[in-house]
Amino acid sequence: MAQHFVMLGPPGAGKGTQAKILSEKMGIPHISSGDLFRENLREKTDLGKLAEGYINRGELVPDDVTIRMVQERISRSDCQAGVLLDGFPRTVYQAEALDEILRDQKNTQVDAVPCIIVADDVLVERLSGRRSCQNGHVFHVKFNPPKVDGICDVDGTELYQREDDTVETVSRRIRVYLDQTQPLIDYYRQKGVLVEIDGAQAIDAVSEALFAAIAKM
Ligand code: ADP
Ligand code: ADP
After folding, report:
1. Assessment of whether the complete model's pTM goes beyond 0.90
2. CB within 10 Å: which end of the chain, N or C, has fewer?
């Protein structure tokens, strides 16, 4: 069965939510480039300082630093058996770099790319109600509320609204997705690894469709 996954889909489609579920089920690490950047932001590392402006404007962080950050994470021992990438790659250049990294470091390749499809108006609703904790657990005020208002079910930390989840930045991020990331759908379709998943269903139903699709790969 497939072990090296790339989750594709626009911001707010549910990539992170599904990646967490799949990661637990399959026992392979969920690596979110957005979470890695936010960790660097919180710790005020040089990378965090560089990335902050891009993230808050809803633009992509430059390819070279992004690729280096993810490459370092993938090279750790917990990724030996497989990885579930979420938010990376986001440009064709990054996708080509990932192919090279997997080939050179692990003699392997991306073997399944679930692409979660959701209409734009739904994305805006999902992102504006998203609440996150500092460890990357994600809830929604309406569609997936925490048991206690404002508190993460998993680790008890406070939930916050991401600065880039405002209506204005969200529309910029969706445009950036259409422009720079959507071409990856064709990139992976041509490689025969793309699976399209209808994301306009409840979280559990999306998971079921996802498991069924990748079980065949
Ligand atoms: P992405 O990682 O693609 O940006 P997230 O997984 O963070 O998306 O989900 C965006 C928001 O939508 C979160 O608040 C999440 O709880 C909610 N969400 C995710 N999947 C669904 C779904 N199938 N139905 C309703 N809300 C969802
Ligand atoms: P979402 O889950 O809503 O799609 P992410 O958490 O994946 O958002 O990303 C948040 C921000 O981090 C992006 O808008 C971008 O600025 C930056 N980022 C994350 N991943 C990448 C990447 N692969 N390339 C460039 N920038 C990235």
Report:
1. yes
2. N
